[in-house]
């Protein structure tokens, strides 16, 4: 088994790395907004209930972008290794890790599943009491320390339970999902965050039914994953809303039937335009994938009186509260948020991976660019300029 992985993914022999500090390359964010610096770092061995992974592929989403830009004061722990969408193989495991072993093909997840707490045992939530997503945590759960350091010994902080912009990373085992070894690791990278969140919002949170009408606000990777899943569920009308007209071409290939550029809607409010397009009633489901309160307001107002459901997927960093009067909920419209598409990561993500392999979700359309690790700053620029959905980084 070890020789197989050595030949196929470059996994070192156990005698070279297991139980030892690994020196490798990482893209380090030293301060907000400054280009990432690729340099040699040290990665400690995994401790109890931890796993060390050799990252093969990683990608960038807007959450990485927001953290890099330092949009939230409480997130400003630097130097830091960002990244949370990735795939790779396990190099070594810490004590008491029983469900994972060296050589397993895995994807990291930013919101973990310990399997033991009351939350994990409940079918009402996918949150975990101990390992749920926490954007402000920058150290390991077990001892409050980092597993990364510079060659001089200066600590480098973690990000979103994952930190994937590095050749090797250390995660809590609750945040590592084993997938079928036959699954293409390049594509499986997308399941760490964006695609799973969008697909799960349709399948698990909204439970979109055949013949339903849907409006998607924001056609990034998450929004287009919503479209792909809604098409698969037989939605009769899928309205895509975005100010970037280039997104419409990609959206059509992923199931969107109608498009709206808000900049071109001048005579009526956006939600009124959507109601007109659906016979006056509004859509059955709206999905807000932007993280903007004004957009969220329009998404909520665009749903059908009596049963409309709005699902929030965008990250709202602003402290400003949502302008909603409680009496508006008496009209039957509902609003709910979703984390990771309500998937329980370790127990349910392997099933999603299988569905993707069977063609139920087309992952190919999401990978718009591929670059080597050394050009990771170019990948950030592609996202900032709205030119990429997912740029896959090869390590």
TrEMBL record:
* Transmembrane segments annotated in the record for this chain: none
Q: Which family does it belong to?
A: Belongs to the zinc-containing alcohol dehydrogenase family. Class-III subfamily.
What organism is recorded for this protein? Dillenia turbinata
Which PROSITE patterns does the protein's record reference? ADH_ZINC
Name of the protein this chain belongs to: Alcohol dehydrogenase-like, C-terminal
Q: Name one GO molecular function term.
A: zinc ion binding
Q: Which InterPro entries match?
A: ADH-like_C, ADH-like_N, ADH_Zn_CS, GroES-like_sf, NAD(P)-bd_dom_sf
Q: Which residues form the Alcohol dehydrogenase-like N-terminal domain?
A: 48-180
Establish whether keyword Cell division is in the entry. Answer: no
Q: What's in the GO CC field?
A: cytosol
Q: How does it assemble?
A: Homodimer.
Question: Which keywords does the record carry?
Answer: Metal-binding, NAD, Oxidoreductase, Zinc
Q: Where is the Alcohol dehydrogenase-like C-terminal domain?
A: 221-342
Q: Does the keyword Oxidoreductase apply?
A: yes
The organism's lineage is: Eukaryota, Viridiplantae, Streptophyta, Embryophyta, Tracheophyta
Cofactor requirement? Zn(2+)
GO BP annotations listed: formaldehyde catabolic process
């Amino acid at each position: 088994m070890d020789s197989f992985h050595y030949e196929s993914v470059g996994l070192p022999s156990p005698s070279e790395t297991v139980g030892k500090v690994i020196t490798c390359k990482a893209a380090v964010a030293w301060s907000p907004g400054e280009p990432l610096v690729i340099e040699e770092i040290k990665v400690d061995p995994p401790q109890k209930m931890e796993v060390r992974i050799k990252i093969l592929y990683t990608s960038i989403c807007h959450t990485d972008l927001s953290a890099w830009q330092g949009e939230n004061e409480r997130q400003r722990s630097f130097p830091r290794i960002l990244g949370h969408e990735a795939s790779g193989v396990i190099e070594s495991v810490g004590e008491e890790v029983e469900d994972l072993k060296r050589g397993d093909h895995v994807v990291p997840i930013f919101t973990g599943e310990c399997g033991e707490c009351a939350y994990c045992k409940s079918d009402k939530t996918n949150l975990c009491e101990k390992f749920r997503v926490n954007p402000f945590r920058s150290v390991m759960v077990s001892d409050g320390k980092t597993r990364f350091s510079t060659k001089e010994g200066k600590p480098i902080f973690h990000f979103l339970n994952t930190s994937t912009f590095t050749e090797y990373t250390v995660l809590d085992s609750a945040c590592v999902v084993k997938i079928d070894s036959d699954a293409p690791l390049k594509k499986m990278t997308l399941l760490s965050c964006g695609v799973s969140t969008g697909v799960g919002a349709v399948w698990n949170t909204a439970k979109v039914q055949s013949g339903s009408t849907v409006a998607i606000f924001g056609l990034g990777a998450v929004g287009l994953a919503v479209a792909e899943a809604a098409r698969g569920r037989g939605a009769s009308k899928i309205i895509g809303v975005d100010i970037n007209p280039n997104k419409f071409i990609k959206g059509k290939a992923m199931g969107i039937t109608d498009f709206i550029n808000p900049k071109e809607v001048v005579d009526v409010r956006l939600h009124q335009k959507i109601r007109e397009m659906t016979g006056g009633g509004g859509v059955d489901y709206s999905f807000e994938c932007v993280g903007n309160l004004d957009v969220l307001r329009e998404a909520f107002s665009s749903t059908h009186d009596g049963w409309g459901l709005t699902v929030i997927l965008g990250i709202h960093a602003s402290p400003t509260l949502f302008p909603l009067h409680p009496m508006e909920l008496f009209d039957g419209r509902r609003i709910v948020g979703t984390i990771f598409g309500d998937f329980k990561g370790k127990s349910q993500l392997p099933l999603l991976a299988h569905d993707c392999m069977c063609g139920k979700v087309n992952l190919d359309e999401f990978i718009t660019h591929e670059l080597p690790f050394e050009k990771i700053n170019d990948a950030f620029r592609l996202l900032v300029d709205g030119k990429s959905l997912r740029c896959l980084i090869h390590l």
